[in-house]
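TL;DR need structure tokens for one chain.
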Amino acid sequence: MNEAEILEYLTDSDGSTRDITFTPAALDCVEVFTKLFLEAFNNGELLDQDGEIVELSAESVMSYIKAREEGCIHGQLKSSDSFVSQVHLFLDRPEDEKIAVEISYFPNDLCGEFTTSLFSKH
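>> reply
TL;DR here they are.
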């Protein structure tokens, strides 16, 4: 795919989300990801599989994950300074040690000045 095709795919508002998935992810990698991700997306709400609120902090999320052998956390988070204004975050821990991380967004939530150059090395 060339850059124009990638940009068209990422921005096409066809009603579906675009998903970024990291699976399986090791616990230590999820810990680093969670810290950095929640620094950027620090507004919103996280819930566990029972609908109970999980505090919106890396420490609380990791404490929750480490205290359970399985479960999930999900929520809608917003950012005022990212290339996408809001995302849905899913952290799913099946019975094994690996964790599935999924970030979903709607193309309409991309910032107005979004370009694929945001992903290229400078």
